[in-house]
Design a protein that fits this description.
heterodimer, A: 371 residues, mainly alpha, D-Maltodextrin-Binding Protein, domain 2, 2 domains, 4-stranded mixed beta sheet, B: 315 residues, alpha/beta, Alpha-Beta Plaits, 6-stranded mixed beta sheet
């Protein structure tokens, strides 16, 4: 290992990267765009308010009071539908997915139940809905829960089973705070894997590697400068992602020594994977396709974008075999849950993977023509 | 150590095979220090394979190769500090300038190099701030030669340094190589351009189908393999061709209707000219020349690098 050679190689790589403005832009801007787009979507979900159309055919104080209660308890933004219109036609014509119809006689039935204790007195509210809408079932479930609460209140008997919520986290986190560590892990994987495969394949195809093989630079010097180069890019990219996340979404993330540790492990793991891949890629044109074949399944299956619990069981098992899953888990353990033991477990697993592929990568890297 | 003082390169019974394909077949040769040694052969003859084995890029299948007294299969680390290599199809980092590229390679060798001197040697003064990707083919090759000299090597390997260049760029590279020769560097040159070998080389080895078929100085090779003169007669008189044919010299007509004759001695030329004069025939011009390396190559290998009716007729 020769530090002078490693630094010479690092400087050339950084200068080349700096002068490739397009590559530089996409390396740093792409993950930031992802954070901005998905962050905006998740932020609106966190404060989501459903629209609910209500047709009150009773037009009494009691029915009006119930509509008001729905708005307050169900977080619904209520739109009144004229009692004279056909509710089914209204749903079709106005592209709403649900109209709640309160029947005529609502107040009189309520009085019979409340005043005369007539338990046979009841009303049926009707949900007129569009089943093709993806959010209508959620809206109906919320509505059912609110109506159950109103029924409970009318009965005058305190509920037997009550529920209490207790989060495993010390404080409430928003989805963006779970998302940002996933994007950090994914973008470092992408820049390390693609950077290694693209660059090494191109340099080999152009004969630069053959020329270098007649100089004192060794495999170890080459690979360590490659790691260092990608680590610097990864650190810059991570800082930019965090700055944008703090500035735009006011995220609350815990940052400690685990963050650079996982960034480094992520770089090692995927530069090593890239070196192995480069051994089997013959031409620069097929390098991106080969890197895509590895990175895309990893991106979607390892929980960078959404929790793997949403996936079928067999996919969850596959996810747990992917190295990126452990970077995601480790970063979330340190940045979100502040769980050092979980971070240590993940770092141990990704560390073993990184060491294995790094050694295999060194063995797979061939400068001398073997044939 | 005595061997090191005699030869820069010693190749002994070198063989290289790729599966069933025998690329290099039991070749042996030596290159003296300070010599420009040209390895001459057509594409696929085994030139690059041989030179890459000597440069430590490829391992041999069998045989022994010694460079400056060191076994190339065992002393790679020591050897790379003492050689300079311009590989075939040389390329460098696209976005790095000429000066930065030379500085980079100097740092790889951990040497203090006179970068300006190298730039001057390969005549790239006006291009020092130009990025590699913006250089023309000839300029790239000249940069490649400068890189090969960055560690002031004892032996310089130049693998087809002018292939793919236009004639002007080729002559520019030759100027640089003549400069190296003047500096007394040992140069191992592979080429399939005969005039390149003839102009630059002290010694030439002709390789064909993995075997060295002849070796010597350009003069020796010509003398021993093509000891004749080529006479070309420009004439519009059809009788001239018949006169020469009847003298038993075997004339041929080239694409320009010139009569070309191969003769053994200078006085044969005089005999032909006298016979034409005596018959009252006329010729408009004549050219007498000694054969060149290309003709030697054609005679030895039977492989035509250029379409040439005289040579084809001889074969």
């Amino acid at each position: 290992m020769n530090l002078r050679i490693i630094s010479a190689n690092l400087v050339v790589k950084l200068m080349g990267f700096y002068r490739e403005k397009t590559t530089m832009f996409f390396t740093f801007a792409f993950p930031i765009i992802l954070i901005l787009v998905f962050g905006t979507i998740f932020m609106s979900q966190d404060s989501m308010e459903y629209r609910l159309s209500v047709q009150d055919l009773d037009q009494t104080n009691s029915s009006a009071q119930s509509v008001k209660t729905l708005g307050l308890k169900g977080k619904f933004k209520i739109t009144s539908v004229d009692p004279a219109v056909d509710a089914t036609k209204y749903v079709r014509d106005n592209k709403v997915n649900l109209v709640l119809v309160i029947p005529k006689g609502y107040e009189s039935s309520l009085m019979r139940r409340m005043m005369l204790k007539d338990n046979n007195a009841s009303v049926t509210v009707t949900y007129i809905y569009d089943p093709s809408s993806s959010s209508v079932m959620t809206k109906m479930q919320i509505l059912n829960a609110v109506l159950a609460g109103i029924n409970q209140g009318i009965s005058g008997v305190p509920p037997f089973i009550r529920s209490a919520e207790r989060s495993i986290l010390t404080r409430k986190y928003r989805f963006i705070e779970f998302f940002v560590p996933g994007i950090i892990a994914m973008s470092i994987m992408t820049l390390s894997l693609f950077g290694t495969v693209d660059s090494d394949t191109e340099l080999r195809q152009k004969g630069v590697i053959r020329k270098l093989s007649t100089t004192p630079i060794t495999h170890t010097d080459w690979i360590l400068s490659n790691i260092l180069y990608h680590f610097i890019l990864a650190v810059i990219s991570t800082i930019l992602m965090l700055l944008v996340s703090y500035a735009v979404f006011d995220v609350s993330l815990h940052i400690d020594a685990w963050l650079p540790a996982f960034v480094l492990l992520d770089v090692f793991a995927f530069v090593g994977t890239g070196m192995i891949l480069t051994r089997f890629v013959k031409e620069a044109q097929s390098a991106a396709a080969a890197a895509n074949a590895i990175s895309y399944p990893m991106m979607f299956l390892s929980g960078s974008f959404f929790p793997i619990e949403l996936m079928p069981g067999f996919l969850q098992k596959i996810a747990k075999t992917l190295p990126l899953y452990y970077v995601n888990e480790g970063l979330r353990a340190s940045m979100v849950f502040e769980d050092n033991m979980a971070a240590l477990r993940s770092s141990a697993i990704i560390g073993v993977y990184a060491a294995a592929v790094f050694i295999l990568g060194i063995m797979a890297t061939r400068w001398e023509e073997g044939r | 150590m005595t061997k090191e003082s005699e030869y820069a390169i010693e190749v002994e019974k070198l063989t290289k095979s790729y599966g069933d394909l025998l690329a290099i077949n039991d070749i042996s040769f030596t290159v003296s220090k300070g010599e420009v040694f040209a390895f001459l052969g057509p594409n696929g003859a085994g030139k690059t394979t041989t030179v890459e084995i000597i440069e430590t890029i490829r391992p041999p299948t069998s045989g022994k190769v010694t460079l400056l007294g060191m076994d190339v299969t065992k002393k790679k680390h020591d050897i790379v500090h003492r050689i300079g290599v311009l590989p075939q199809g040389f390329s460098s980092f696209d976005r790095i300038t000429v000066r930065e590229t030379l500085q980079y390679y100097a740092r790889l060798f951990s040497v203090k190099t006179d970068i300006d001197g190298l730039i001057e040697l390969v005549n790239l003064r006006d291009k020092t701030k130009e990025q590699y990707k913006n250089l023309s083919g000839g300029l790239k090759q000249r940069l490649g030669i400068a890189i090969a000299l960055v560690n002031d090597p004892e032996v310089v390997f130049l693998d087809e340094p002018t292939t793919g260049l236009d004639p002007r760029a080729r002559h520019e590279v030759w100027e640089v190589l003549l400069g190296l020769k003047k500096k007394g560097k040992t140069v191992f040159l592979t080429t399939h351009y005969m005039e390149e070998a003839e102009l630059l080389a002290d010694m030439v080895a002709i390789i064909s189908k993995g075997k060295i078929i002849s070796m010597g100085s350009p003069g020796e090779l010509i003398e021993s393999n093509a000891n004749y003169l080529s006479l070309t007669l420009r004439t519009a008189d059809d009788k001239v061709f018949e006169i020469v044919r009847q003298m038993g010299f075997g004339p041929v007509l080239d694409n320009h209707k010139n009569i070309r004759v191969r003769v053994e001695h200078a006085y044969d030329v005089q005999k032909i000219l006298n016979a034409i004069k005596d018959a009252g025939a006329l010729y408009l011009g004549l050219d007498v020349r000694k054969p060149n390396l290309e003709e030697v190559f054609l005679k030895l290998t039977g492989e035509a690098l250029r379409e040439d009716p005289l040579e084809m007729a001889v074969e």
